């Protein structure tokens, strides 16, 4: 799957919730997410622009690999995700084969659906409020069109700046350098 994602700083969750309601976006779920990110013993993920994490939510646990970004406008990248039963066992396996835990990112996320978009309002520990809009594609052929439609939706919501291509992990890492 190719994930086309753009995030932007927002002033407040309440203001964005009102704007989302006005355009007909529907609240779909709210969840807490804890993401444990790992460094590879072989590849410098910061240099290769990749990520490996274990995500635990209210109901599920996943291992996610995110490939390098495919363009300079959005976080468009290949994503492979797999459900697992135990975050602790996965973490043990990763550490036994040389992966090192880098940082844990915790956030409360409110999801909305609108047309073919998944929208999330993210309250990330240590960061200001953010909104992400994404479209998942089965192949990467249409990612420029998907990216354009995401920026059009941001504009419809009154957001024309404050866009961020870096991940929450990178934003937090940059705060603590």
Could you tell me the strand content as a percent range?
35-45%
Q: Helix tally?
A: 5
CATH level 1 name: Mainly Beta
The Cα radius of gyration reads: 16 Å
Percent of residues in helices comes to 25-40%
Topology pattern, helix = H, strand = E? EHEHEEEHEEEHEH
CATH topology (level 3) name = Hypothetical Protein Pfu-838710-001
Spatial order of strands in the largest sheet: 1-5-4-3-2-6-7-8
Mean pLDDT, all residues: 93
The span between the termini is: 33 Å
Per CATH, which architecture? Beta Barrel
Q: How many strands, what sense, and barrel or not for the largest sheet?
A: 8 strands, antiparallel, barrel
What is the total domain count?
1
Number of strands: 9
Secondary-structure class:
alpha+beta
Large-scale geometry:
globular
**Residue windows where pLDDT falls under 50 for at least 5 positions:** none
């Amino acid at each position: 799957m190719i994930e086309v994602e753009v995030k932007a700083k927002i002033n407040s969750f309440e203001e964005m919730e009102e704007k989302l309601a006005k355009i007909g976006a529907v609240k779909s779920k709210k969840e807490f997410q804890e993401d444990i990110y790992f460094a590879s013993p072989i590849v410098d993920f910061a240099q290769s622009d990749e990520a490996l994490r274990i995500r635990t939510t209210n109901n599920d646990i996943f291992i996610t690999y995110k490939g390098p970004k495919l363009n300079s406008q959005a976080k468009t990248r290949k994503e492979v995700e797999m459900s697992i039963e135990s975050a602790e066992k996965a973490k043990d396996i990763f550490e036994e084969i040389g992966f090192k835990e880098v940082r844990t990112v915790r956030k409360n996320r409110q999801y909305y659906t609108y047309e073919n978009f998944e929208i999330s309002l993210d309250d990330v520990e240590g960061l200001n409020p953010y909104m992400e809009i994404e479209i998942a594609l089965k192949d990467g052929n249409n990612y420029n069109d998907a990216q354009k439609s995401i920026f059009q939706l941001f504009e419809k919501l009154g957001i024309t700046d404050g866009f961020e291509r870096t991940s929450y992990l990178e934003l937090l890492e940059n705060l603590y350098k």
